[in-house]
Amino acid sequence: MSSTQRKESSSASIAYARMLDDIRTGTLQAGDRVTETELATRLELSRTPVREAIRMLEADGLVEHVPRVGATIRKLGYAEVMELYDMRAVLEGTAARMAARTASDIELAELDALNADMATCSDLNQAYHLNRQFHLTLLDAAKNRFLLKSMAGLQRTLLILGPIILSDPTRAAASVEEHEAILRALRARDADAAEAAMRAHIEAGHRKRLRLLRDERRLTPQAEDVLAEAFRD
C-alpha cells in the first residue's frame, strides 16, 4: 500500500468514526440525506475518504440509497426495533451469565466504579460514555470474542435510533439501580440471576425507547396499535 493509499484509508476511518458519532448524537438522523460534498466540507476532508466512509456505513446497514434522493441514514421499522432489542437481551443476558463465572475481581471492581460514577453524573454525554463503558466492560468480562463481535454489529445498528434514553433523569437513575442488581448477581457468582437481571435491564430500556418513538410519532399507525397492546398492563 502506497503512502497516499494509507493516508486515504486513515482519513476514511476518521470520517467513518465522525459519522458514527453524528448518528449517535442525532446530528445525523434517520432519513437525513448524506452528501459527499457537505460532509467533506464539515469534516474538513476530501471527498474520497468521505465516499469510502459512506460505503462502510452502507455495509453496516446504517446508510441506504433511496430512489431520487440518494444516500440517506436508514430508518428502522417497528419490527426491526423489536428484533434488535430482543437480540440485545439475548446477547447481553448471555454475557452476564458468562461473566458471573469468568469475571475477575478487578473487572468487578471496575464495574462497581463505573456505576458509582454514573450515579453521581449530571452530564448527559458523560453518562452515555459511563453507561457504554459499563456494558463494554461486562462484555469483556464474559471473555468470548464471538459474543463481542455480534454485539458490536448490533450496537452500530442501534445508533440509528438517535440520542440515548438516559436523557430522562428517571431512566438514568433506574439504570443505575438495574446495574446494581446485575452487580449483586455477579459478585455472588449467580449466573441465573445475572442473566435475569441483565434481561430485565435491557427490557426496561426497550420499553422506554418505544415510548420515545411513540411520543416522537416515529412509529407507523400499525406499530402504534401493537405498542398500545404491549403497554396495556
UniProtKB/TrEMBL annotation:
What domain of life does the native source organism fall in? Bacteria
Q: Cite the Gene3D superfamilies for this sequence.
A: GntR ligand-binding domain-like, Winged helix-like DNA-binding domain superfamily/Winged helix DNA-binding domain
**Which Pfam families does this UniProt record tie to the protein?**
FCD, GntR
The Gene Ontology terms for molecular function here are:
DNA binding; DNA-binding transcription factor activity
Query: Can you name the source organism?
Result: Falsiruegeria litorea R37
**InterPro entries noted in UniProt:** GntR_C, TF_FadR/GntR_C, Tscrpt_reg_HTH_GntR, WH-like_DNA-bd_sf, WH_DNA-bd_sf
Keyword Transcription attributed = yes
Q: What is this protein called?
A: Putative HTH-type transcriptional regulator YdfH
> Gene behind this chain?
ydfH_2
Keywords annotated in UniProt: DNA-binding, Transcription, Transcription regulation
Where does the HTH gntR-type domain lie?
9-76
Per its UniProt record, what CDD domains does this chain match? Answer: WHTH_GntR (cd07377)
